[in-house]
Here is the input.
Amino acid sequence: MAVKHYGIPAYEGPRSRHIRKLVKVNPKRGDSRSRFDQYRTGMTVQEYIYACESLGVPNYALFDITWDTQRNFIELYD
Here is the structure.
């Protein structure tokens, strides 16, 4: 069963998938804004987790990926 945060399940797919940003302007506000700034097109899910870890918030990374994918801010590809 997926772990949820505010009703959003954590991403459970392969951490080797790559991230593609679909927006040019950061759509986030608050604490999630700095995490969104960590996305780089071509980085892997695991690299994003490490980037969030450097901010001191690795626990939110997998929820961010689900949230941002559902809202078409990013997409994942192999």
Notes: Residues 4-77 form one domain. The first helix runs from residue 31 to 36.
